[in-house]
What we know:
35% of the residues lie in helices and 9% in strands. It has 2 helices and 2 strands. It has a two-stranded antiparallel ribbon with strand order 1-2. The radius of gyration is 16 Å and the shape is globular.
Amino acid sequence: MPDPNNFDGAVEIHRGDGWETLPPSAGYPGAGRGTGLVDLAEALSEGRPHRASAELAAHVLDTMLTLMDAADQGRALPVTSTCERPAPVTAADT
Length: 94
């Protein structure tokens, strides 16, 4: 995963025979940490749902904890939580 402070960078996945760089599917090069805060403030002032919901945060935490448990146990484990996927941030949003 890329540096979470910048919202861009390569995402790589290991598929057994080596690392593969995935094509970009979201993000905006050159954006910094404050971009997410600006998006949150604009969503609240416009009365639209914001991307940084408690539901999403709980799902991200569940996913991270499940990955850690899976690594400890040496086996795949299902992530049991779900959440609605927020709309992607596009260049028009920045």
